[in-house]
Here is the input.
Amino acid sequence: MKRKILFYIIAGILSAIFFIVLYKWFFNQPCKVPEKPDNVPYSAVWKGDFDEGQWIELVSMREDTCRFRIYQDYDGSLILDADFYYVDC
Here is the structure.
């Protein structure tokens, strides 16, 4: 009787460890960067997840602004070309 209880306890612990490791492995897979469309500049970087995101290019930095261009992930079309202002917190 004691051996049977000990067996179930050990089997439960090993099962829990197995499922925790499987969960960590499954949900921590790195997302592959999609292939960059031809019309997206080389300096643009990918910011997104496995199913959606954008290519972001830092065009210029000035004393009080940064200019960014944001491109669509699948065809490289320009979504936004704008200046962003620094704000003190």
User: Anything to note?
Assistant: The longest strand covers residues 53-61. The chain has a mean pLDDT of 88. DSSP finds one helix and four strands in the chain. Strands lie at 45-48, 53-61, 65-72, 78-85.
